[in-house]
Every structure is written in structure tokens, then in C-alpha cells.
Amino acid sequence: MSSRRCIDDDILTVLWTQDQLSHKVEDIASQITHDFSSSSSSCCPVIVGVATGAFLFLADLVRNIKLPVTVDFVRAESYGSGTVSTGVPKLSCDVKLDVTGKHVVLVEDIVDTGNTVSRLISYLEAKGATSVSVCTLLDKPARRKVHFELLGDGKFYSGFECPDYFVVGYGLDFNEQYRNLPYIGVLKPEIYK
Ligand code: 5GP
Ligand code: MG
Ligand code: MG
After folding, report:
1. Transmembrane stretches, by residue range (predicted)?
2. Is the minimum distance from the CB of 116 to ligand 1 under 6 angstroms?
3. N or C terminus: which one in the chain shows less Cβ crowding within 10 Å?
4. ipTM over 0.90
């Protein structure tokens, strides 16, 4: 049998370990639990993940939120197979749940230029959401191009500030690979050059 390359060998540096990610996710989930538990039960949030990148973060996040929530996904793609955003996120999958009159928490892996969340906030507003919060594991403010306004009394939850590197792991991909790494790291430049 031929030996396969180990995906860890393609990582230059680990930025956040599995343990650090897990503690941060618990922190964010308790903030969400706290913020939404003061509202009546009809206000329990609809958690909308942005596929595919947010799938692991969302799975860990909802298991730590101590409130009844509903879960749905939208699909937005802006990178294709490269490492630079095209700037025009393509929404290729609609929410299944009715978000009319609901408080939505939009869950992202990373906010980079801001194009994707900006587009999705408008989309959820048009669908009748009462508020839209954004919950992102990583925020890369150095690359922000679009200023976005949260809807209603929506809040911005952010895990870690990400330095201006292309990162992979814990849901984040390069060319659809590396999503299954349990940590987040910087990809070796020779992999994408
Ligand atoms: P934005 O629309 O804010 O520019 O980018 C949002 C999407 O681009 C993110 O949801 C993510 O899928 C992708 N993205 C942005 N920065 C990175 C990065 O450093 N690594 C990876 N793998 N994806 C990124
Ligand atoms: Mg994403
Ligand atoms: Mg991607």
C-alpha cells in the first residue's frame, strides 16, 4: 500500500489548538445563552450557519448553548479554489426555516472583507428577521472592505482576532481540504503557490 501524506505536514504554524478553540466556543456559547435567556421563550434564536466553513464551529457552539434553538444553514461561497476573496459571495442555498419575526444568529467561520456577512444580513432582513447577530469564530479586521450594520438589537460575537494569513482547519478549507483538522493553522505557502 502506498503511504499517504499526513495533512499536519502541510501546516506551517498552529495558531489555535483544539483546547483553545474548545474553551473559546464555550465562552461564546455562554454569552449567547446569557443574552437570549432574558427574552421570552418565543425569542429563542434561530442559529444559521454559513456552509461549509462554519459546520464544526456551529456543531460545537449549539451543544454549549443552554437554550432551545433551531438550526439551519445557508451556503455562501466567495473563494472558489483560491486564497483571495472574489468579493462577490454566491448564495447557493436558501434557509429552510421561516425566519419571519425571529432573532437570527448568523454563524461564520471567519469575517474577512465583510462581503459575505453584509450580503447575508440584507438577505435575512428581506426574509423578515427581527434581529440578526453575527457570531464568528475568527475576525480578520485588517482585510475589512465592507462595513456592515447588524439588524435590530443584534450583537457581534467574535472568538479570536486572526492575523492576516490564510488559515485552515476546524472547518476552514483550502480547495475543500483541511476542514477536518481539529486546530487552526497557517498553510505552508508552497501548497497554494
Ligand atoms: P468575506 O466575505 O468576509 O471576505 O469572507 C468570508 C469567507 O471567506 C469566510 O466565510 C471564509 O469561508 C473565507 N475566508 C476568508 N478568510 C479565510 C482564510 O484565511 N482561510 C480560509 N480557509 N477561508 C477564508
Ligand atoms: Mg465562511
Ligand atoms: Mg472556503
Report:
1. none
2. yes
3. N
4. yes
